[in-house]
Write a structure and sequence with these properties.
Layout: H1 7-28, E1 32-35, E2 49-50, E3 57-58, E4 77-80, E5 91-93, E6 99-106, E7 114-117, E8 120-131, E9 138-140, E10 143-145, E11 150-154, E12 158-161, E13 171-173, E14 178-181, E15 192-194, E16 205-207, E17 212-213, E18 217-220, E19 227-230, E20 236-238, E21 242-245, E22 253-257, E23 264-267, E24 270-272, E25 279-284, E26 290-294, E27 297-298, E28 303-307, E29 311-314, E30 323-327, E31 331-334, E32 345-348, E33 356-358, E34 364-366, E35 369-370, E36 380-382, E37 391-393
Parallel strand pairs: 1-4, 2-5, 4-6, 5-7, 6-8, 7-9, 8-10, 8-11, 9-12, 11-13, 12-14, 13-15, 14-16, 15-18, 16-19, 17-20, 18-21, 19-22, 20-23, 21-24, 22-25, 23-26, 24-27, 25-28, 26-29, 28-30, 29-31, 30-32, 31-33, 32-35, 33-36, 34-37
Antiparallel strand pairs: 1-3
Length: about 400
């Protein structure tokens, strides 16, 4: 004869399951924390503190409650400043024993530029850093880590990542401002996805400090214009390749060498997919600097443009795009035979004043030349190389 377990055993199992569910729900709950250095005194103060040591965390955004040394997890949101309050110190030391965050917010009233440095911060599967004001630049120099963890930067304001970061899920930029990378591993090891809402030629991704960024870069042309800009000193490099997606014809994408000294190198190639018909530009603001493009450009429906004071050297053959556009004072130098797509024609724009194509001792075949030499007589094809060069016009399909 079968017997049933005593009733109290079944009841205990039910209670155990309920308690387990309650504890799990509590562990996953998100708590809002505010960095407040002066406790229950109104405002957030200006005392220097260390995350994980100082009793500076409050769960009250009004700045009037007692604070504690809370242990922040990847289920929690941390706030530096709010819509009305500013934390008036420029430095926060990161936690020596790793803590984390789900979201990190810099409030609209946080007008003091803030740097979080040292220690280690864990990212959630998808963590977000939101800036609500352009009034101050923020820097995170602490190590950001997390296997599979991804980071999104959004909102107005410049955020600099300068830590030796190890998270692997990539970085996404949204909103209408910028992310600056000041360490070769600042973006971890995943893809950098640029999908800002910029409509002008404003830098959206910055490079500084003589770094080599090996991450693949993907640009979504449907959301806005993206400009990758190299600044400061030293030689910066992008080695992971750039892919432009989407069929937007009006959004122009560019890479700019605006360093006070040093050069910028792009390797890994540039690819246009999804019917991208806009332009991709190589730019630079200072004469004497050089940009190097060490990869083919494969964007059959797009065009490649060079402009500004920096001279760009093209070191790879085999590109494919519709035309090559020289604008303003743009100068380009060949580094191999047929560095310009042989199926493209070369076009000096109406505002090209001193733009030059330097064959540099190499041969080039193109599908024509288009320019108003009568109006812009300084537009020219030159050869500053040690060997003779041959420029061939072949495969023309229209009068140029």
């Amino acid at each position: 004869m079968k017997t049933r377990p005593p009733f109290h055993l079944r009841y205990s199992a039910a209670v155990f399951a309920a308690v387990t569910m309650l504890l799990s729900s509590h562990a996953d709950a998100q708590t809002q924390y505010y960095w407040d250095s002066n406790g229950a005194t109104a405002s957030f103060g200006n005392s220097t503190g260390t995350w994980g040591t100082s009793s500076f965390w409050s769960t009250n955004g009004n700045g009037t409650s007692a604070t504690s040394n809370a242990s922040i997890t990847t289920s929690d949101t941390v706030n530096f400043g709010t819509a009305t309050l500013n934390y008036a110190n420029e430095a926060v030391s990161g936690p020596a024993a790793a803590q984390g965050f789900l979201n990190m917010n810099f409030g609209a009233a946080q007008t003091t530029a803030l740097s979080i440095s040292g220690g280690t911060l864990n990212l959630a599967a998808n963590s977000t850093i939101t800036q609500s004001s352009t009034g101050a630049n923020m820097t995170i120099a602490s190590v950001l880590q997390g296997s599979g963890s991804a980071l999104t930067k959004t909102g107005p304001g410049l955020l600099t990542l300068s830590g030796n970061n190890t998270f692997t899920g990539g970085v996404t930029l949204t909103g209408n401002w910028a992310l600056n990378l000041a360490h070769s591993s600042a973006a971890g090891t995943g893809t950098i996805l640029l999908k800002s809402t910029q409509t002008s030629f404003f830098t959206t991704l910055g490079l500084s400090g003589g770094i080599t960024v090996a991450n693949a870069i993907q640009i979504d042309s449907t959301t806005g214009r993206e400009s990758i800009t190299s600044t400061d000193t030293g030689n910066n490099a992008l080695s992971g390749g750039i892919t432009v997606t989407g069929g937007n014809a009006t959004n122009f994408m560019s890479v700019n060498n605006n360093q006070s000294s040093g050069n910028l190198t792009i390797s890994g190639g540039i690819t246009g997919t999804g019917g991208f018909t806009g332009g991709f530009g190589l730019r630079g603001s200072l004469a004497g600097n050089t940009g190097f493009l060490n990869g083919a450009v494969n964007a059959p429906a797009s065009y490649l443009s060079v402009g500004g004071a920096t001279t760009w050297t093209l070191n790879t053959a085999g590109s494919n795009y519709t035309y090559f556009y020289l604008t303003s004072t743009g100068n380009v130098r060949l580094g191999v035979h047929n560095a310009i797509a042989t199926s493209a024609y070369v076009w000096w724009s109406a505002n090209s004043t001193t733009g030059a194509l330097d064959l540099n001792g190499f041969n080039q075949s193109v599908a024509g030349i288009q320019a108003n030499f009568a109006a812009n007589g300084n537009n020219m094809v030159t050869n500053n190389g040690a060997s003779d060069s041959i420029l061939t016009l072949a495969g023309l399909t229209a009068n140029r």
